[in-house]
Specification:
mainly beta, 2 domains, three-stranded antiparallel beta sheet
């Protein structure tokens, strides 16, 4: 932003002796600012190789459709971003202040800007202490196949095309694992707090309402992995984790990780309606540069 202040006919005192009674004066100020980044956040770096496609939609307007998909599928970081292969990003790519975006491959496409953020970012703080003490875990029943969803302690594990239904509420688990076509049915707004890792492989649907606003997973773990041919609807907020998204899976929602790597033929559809998630990382204030 450039602001110009111009004043005309400013009266002069000493110069009036020389016959000059007025003058013009002015000042120019330039501030550099960054627009909010919505979508994929890798606080300590992002890598997007392969044939990844990123775009956006608004779930409040209805289900995702390639016909009406938007171009707010932003990819952002507090550090470097590397984009390569045949990746298509329908949105902005914003590396951190003092860092850069590196592109490798003539087939990749970025439809938005690649503007560097004007200041560093601060990671959102995630804790599980309150969720450990007060949660709705006692409402959890057996799976559709009559199995106990907990393999040990509070480590939730679903396999073999099994499904677990959670009532709307707040839950605490030590870890979560979905394999071999397992799915999770969400019946309304649900928050899950994890003190450990999240692993989703094979096929299956996580959040069968297909509404990303209904599921938010907060994790203090070190790893989040999603591979295979999975459909995930929701937000994952894991600022201390290495996040790996791979395969032919489709992700609908938003994500915040320590580092994020997306590869394969992965599709990421940013849900523009998730303002509460995007607000966890505020855009830096404008910086006066002139």
């Amino acid at each position: 932003m450039r602001v110009v202040d111009l004043r005309i006919d400013v009266p002069l005192f000493f110069a009036a002796v020389m016959g000059k009674n007025t003058t013009r004066t002015g000042a120019v100020a330039v501030a550099l600012g960054s627009k909010p980044c919505k979508g994929i956040w890798g606080l300590n770096g992002v890598k997007v190789p392969g044939s990844v496609e990123v775009d956006s939609y608004n779930s409040e307007d209805g289900p995702y459709s390639v016909v009406t998909a938007g171009d707010d599928g932003d990819v952002c970081s507090g550090k470097d971003i590397v984009v390569s292969g045949k990746t298509i990003i329908n949105g902005d790519v914003m590396p951190g202040f003092g860092y850069a975006t590196t592109t490798n491959g003539g087939a990749l496409e970025i439809t938005g800007t690649t503007t560097v953020s004007n200041q560093g970012v601060t990671a959102p703080v995630v804790t599980v202490d309150e969720a450990m003490l007060s949660n709705d875990n006692d409402t959890i029943t057996l799976t559709d196949k009559g199995n106990d969803p907990f393999s040990s302690g509070l480590n939730m594990s679903l396999t073999a095309n099994d499904n677990l239904t959670l009532q709307p509420g707040l839950y605490y688990f030590e870890s979560m694992s979905f394999t071999s076509g397992a799915s999770l049915t969400i019946t309304g707004p649900t928050e899950i707090y994890l003190s450990g890792d999240l692993n989703v492989t094979g096929t299956g649907t996580i959040n069968t309402t297909l509404n990303p606003a209904d599921l938010t997973i907060y994790s203090t773990g070190s790893t989040v992995k999603m591979t295979g041919d999975v459909e995930f609807y929701g937000s994952i907020i894991a600022p201390y984790a290495e996040i790996e998204l791979a395969g032919t899976s489709s992700y609908y929602g938003a994500i915040i990780g320590g580092t994020v790597k997306i590869s394969g033929d992965f599709e990421f559809h940013v849900d523009e309606s998730l303002d509460d998630v995007f607000a966890l990382i505020k855009p830096p204030p404008p910086t006066l540069v002139q």
